[in-house]
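Subject: sequence -> C-alpha cells, single chain

Hey, anyone have a minute? Need the predicted structure for the following. Not urgent.
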Amino acid sequence: MALSVTDTGRGMDPEVLSHIFEPFFTTKEVGKGTGLGLAMVYGILRQNGGFVSVESAPGRGSTFRLHLPRFQYPGGGDRPEVPEAPIPGGTETILLVEDEEALLDLGRTLLEDAGYRVHAFSRPVQALAFLAREERGIHALVTDLVMPGMGGVELSRALLRQRPGTKVLFMSGYPMEGTRGFGTLPPSARFLQKPFNRRELLEHLRAVLDGGK
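Reply:
Had a minute. Here:
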C-alpha cells in the first residue's frame, strides 16, 4: 500500500535531499523548525516494515510516497473479540520532559487521569532546575530521547547522579536501532516507540515502576 503526497513548493536540490531524514536537519530559519518531522516519518515507516521515497527538484515541488505492507489477520476472517485487560494507573510522582508542547500536554493529561502526580517540562534544563529545588521524591522520569540541546540520555544521567534508583522511560519517534547515536540507555530503562496510545504509555510506565523489562 502506498500513500502519495505532492506539493508545488520550491523543491529541493540533491544536496538538501541527501539530508532530509537526518534528525534536526532543517532549511527553515532558527526557531521556526526542529528538523524532526521527516525523521519521525522515516522512523515510523521503518518500524512498521515500510519505507519512504522522494522525488524533488528545484522549481518542481516534491512528491513523497509512503509505502506500507498490507496487513492480513493471520487467522483469516474477522478478528476474534478478546476482552481487554484494565489499563493500569498509579499514584507515583512522574517527571515528564517532552519538547513538543502538544505531546507534553497530552502526556501530562494521560498520566494525571491515570492517578499520577506529574511535573511536566518542555526543556531538560527546566527539569534539572526543578530537581535542584524539589525535595520530594521522583519515582520515574518519562522523557523524549531526542531533543535539541540536551537529549534524554544526558538528562537521565544527570538525574540519576542526583537521585540514584529513579526509574526511566524513554520515548522516541525513531526505532530503537536508530537511537544508538544519541547515547546508551541505562540498563534499567525502558523504551516506548512513538506514536503510542494511552494503554501503551501507561503499561510501559507501570512496568518500569514495578521493575519489569
